[in-house]
Amino acid sequence: MTVIELIERCSARLHEAGVSFGHGTTNAFDEAAWLVLWRLGQPLDALDEVAEQPVDDAQLAQVDALMDERIATRRPAAYLTGEAWLQGVPFTVDERVIVPRSLIAEPLADGSIDAWLNERTRQVLDLCTGNGSLAVLAAMAWPEVQVAAADLSTDALAVAALNVQRHGLADRITLHQGDGLAAVAGQRFDLILCNPPYVNSA
């Protein structure tokens, strides 16, 4: 069996099981490709290069076990792999945070939000930062800006700290714990980003 044949088989399994998507993928094939490539230790953009490579019995068993878990638990693929992507940037995630999805990410990445800034913009707040993805994207987009990332959840901030370190931005992003703006009381900001939680706790 080749990699692409395995992906197609896994895609059929996910489809037949009625698995829902939306945490990084929108269909069974893309989800299967993500999980198979991750389990095989291949880059997620390497499908064309590895599609015809053979899969041995040990690798097949590992992929099957991962698919069994995805189907049985319905845990999002991002939680199974410990990673999610936003605008092409990888972020560490686990059950302490919501898998990052935000309409704010695209204008951050493509520069269309720049109209809200000017040459004096130096302080940006990411309120309800979660895993810190918007704070990281903001720091990447605006190298001259300092970013404060605030959240009520200490668990979420622990994951955000991993992502700040992962992207080498500890000197540009500070983390603050507290309820809403109380987390940064007394501070002033030129721009506030906010993508608050939008789902109830399970």
Overview of the structural elements:
The chain is of the alpha/beta class. The protein has two domains: 3-81, Helicase, Ruva Protein, domain 3 (Orthogonal Bundle), CATH 1.10.8; 99-194, Rossmann fold (3-Layer(aba) Sandwich). The protein contains eight helices and six strands. It has helices at residues 3-17, 28-39, 47-50, 57-73, 77-81, 105-110, 133-141, 154-166, and strands at residues 83-86, 89-92, 123-127, 146-151, 173-177, 191-194. The strands form two sheets. A four-stranded parallel β-sheet has the order 5-4-3-6, covered by helices on one side. The protein has a two-stranded antiparallel sheet with strand order 1-2. β3, α7 (133-141) and β4 form a beta-alpha-beta unit. α1 (3-17) runs parallel beside α4 (57-73) and α2 crosses α4 (57-73). The chain is elongated. The termini are far apart. The mean pLDDT is 93.
List keywords for this structure.
two-stranded antiparallel ribbon; 6 strands; 2 domains; elongated; Helicase, Ruva Protein, domain 3; alpha/beta; 202 residues; single chain; 40% helix; Rossmann fold; 8 helices; four-stranded parallel beta sheet
In short:
The protein is an alpha/beta fold and 202 residues long. The protein has eight helices and six strands. α1 (3-17) crosses α2 (28-39) and α1 packs parallel to α4.
